[in-house]
Amino acid sequence: MTNLFAHGDAADVCAALPPDVRFDLVYLDPPFGVGVSMTARTEAGQTRGRRTRAGGPIAYEDRFDPDALVTMLMPRLEAIRSRMNPGATLYVHLDHRTVHEVKVAADRLFGRGAFLGEVIWTPGNGGRGARGFAVTHQTLLLYARAPSERKEVVYNAADPMLREPYAATSLSMHFKKQDDAGRYYRERVIGGKAYRYYADEGRRLGSVWTDAPAMVANTPLRDEGTGYPTQKPEKLLERTVRASSRPGSTVADLMCGSGTTLVVAARLGRRFVGGDASEVAVETATRRLQAENIEFSILTGASYRAKSEGGPASLDNP
Length: 318
Hints:
The protein is an alpha/beta fold. The chain is built from 7 helices and 17 strands. A 9-stranded mixed sheet has the order 14-7-8-6-2-15-16-1-17.
C-alpha cells in the first residue's frame, strides 16, 4: 500500500478507503472545546492560535462544548474502529475541557476493557494563574480495538525512546555488578525467575512525558514549526509511533493538521493514511510532505460533509 492523503472528514475518509486498508496505529487530535476560532500563521507578521486581528486565515473552528464534542467525535471513532486491525492501538489527544466526557463515551464504544491507560503530556507552556492550580498538561487516551485484543497490542518497550535514565541514587545503590563486557547491571528474582537490568539501558518510561516541549513546533525560529495552530512536536509523535507500531505497519491520522504524524511515520518506515477537513491543514501538510520528498497518493471520494451537517468549518486540532 502507498501512502494515502485526503481532504475530507474522518468518517468519509474511512468509507472511501479500499477494503484492504486497515490501521495498525491511529493518532487523533480533535478540537479541545476552547470556544474560539483558531488561525494559522501563513505570512510574516501574522499570529497563530486564538483568533485576533493580526491572525492569519482560520484553520479550524473549536467551538464545541463537551456534549457537542462527544456527539461529533463518536461516529468518527466508530468509523475509525471499523478500520483498525486486531491488536491496533488508538491514541486520542485531549485536554481537561473534554477528556472526561470523551473517556466515558469511548468506554461505551470500545468496551471499558479496551482502555489501555493514558499518557499525561506536559507541553511546557501555558499561564500560571494566581488562583488555584494552573492546568499545564494534556491527556492521551489509549484504546485497543476491543477488550479481547488487549494482549495483542504492540508495545515496543525496548525502544530507546521508551526508556529513561535511572536515578543516580539507584545506580549507585543497585547497579554494582559487571558482566564480561564491563556493563553494570542488577538482578532481581521475581516469581522464582531471575531478571537482569542493565544500567545503560535505562528504565521503562512511565506515563508522564515531560521531555517533548510544544514550543519547538510553535515558533518560527525552528524549522519544525509550520505556523499551524496547536501543532504538536515531532518528538511526541515519534515516541507514539515507535511505541505502538512496527516498521511497515500503517499509521493513520485523520485530523492531521500540519501533518506531523504523517511525516514522522514516513521517516520511521511506516505507511500512513492522512486526512483533514481543513483546507488550510491540507495545504500545510502537503507542503510539508513535499518538502521532505515523501511520496503519497490523493484519496478521492472523501469529500468534506461537515458543513451540510451544520458543523464547523473544520474538525481538527493537530
